[in-house]
Amino acid sequence: MKTKVLLIACALFGFQMGFAQEFKTVAIDSVKSMSIDLVTQKSIDKEVAREKSKADRAIRDQERAEKSRQKAEKKRERAEKAREKAIKKEEKQERKIEKADKTVQKLNSKLDRAKNDLDKMEAKLDKTMSRGKLSEVEIEKGNLKISKQRLKIQELEVDIAKAENKFKKLNN
After folding, report:
1. How far apart are CA 60 and CA 54, in angstroms?
2. 171/117 Cα distance (integer angstroms)
3. Alpha helix locations (H) across the chain?
4. Are 135 and 89 in contact (CB under 8 A)?
5. 157 vs 12, more confident
6. What is the end-to-end Cα distance of the chain in Å, rounded?
7. Is residue 29 packed enough to be buried (19+ CB in 10 Å), middle (13-18) or exposed (0-12)?
8. CA-wise closest residue to 98 among 90, 153, 76
9. C-alpha dist (Å) from residue 79 to 74, 82, 86
10. Each residue's pLDDT tens digit, 85-97
């Protein structure tokens, strides 16, 4: 076992030595390479400076374009908001008009019912009075109910006038 391990280790060492590379040391004239390096370095520096200025200009142009795009976007958004606001205002105005119209119609129907009730009350009171079945107190109670109904009708007429004025204002 020890022999096998020793043989494998020797084989690996020999294999490694067989593929090892040699390198030569080369003497470089440092003065000559320095002058070439300075000239090439200056030209490289100039090229880098030109490229940097071009890149800076491109970045500035890109920033300007981005700013103008953002301004245009904000302007478009403001216009969109203004348009939506105008639409909402118009819809609100239409709802107010519809509500005012509905109120006028509702008050008119209440007025019609109140007038019908008044007519029925008066007819009923006249009918029972003509029969002579009512006492003075009952007659006064009937007259009181009729008076209350007339006041209610007058209040409804005032409310209708106000509602119609409101409706006319909203339509103008």
Report:
1. 10
2. 33
3. 2-18, 30-131, 136-171
4. no
5. 157
6. 113
7. exposed
8. 90
9. 9, 5, 11
10. 999 999 999 999 9
Tokens 């203004």 belong to: 82
Among the listed residues 143, 156, 164, 162, the one whose alpha carbon sits nearest the alpha carbon of residue 114: 156
Please, which residues have CB within 8 angstroms of residue 32's CB and are 6 or more apart in sequence?
none
Q: What is the C-alpha to C-alpha distance for residues 160 and 152, in angstroms, rounded to an integer? A: 12
* Selected residue with higher pLDDT from 31 and 53: 53
Residue 156 neighbours by CB distance under 10 Å = 18
Tokens 């491109």, residue located: 58
Q: Which of 145, 151, 107 is nearest to 123 (CA)?
A: 145
Question: Tokens 């040391």 belong to which residue?
Answer: 25
Q: Which residues of 45-72 are buried (b: 16+ CB within 10 A; e: fewer)?
A: eeeeeeeeeeeeeeeeeeeeeeeeeeee
Domain ranges of the chain: 43-171
C-alpha 107: how far from its chain's center? Answer: 39
Q: How confident is the model at residue 13 (pLDDT cuts 50, 70, 90)?
A: confident
SS3 97: helix
149, 117 contact by CB (below 8 A):
yes
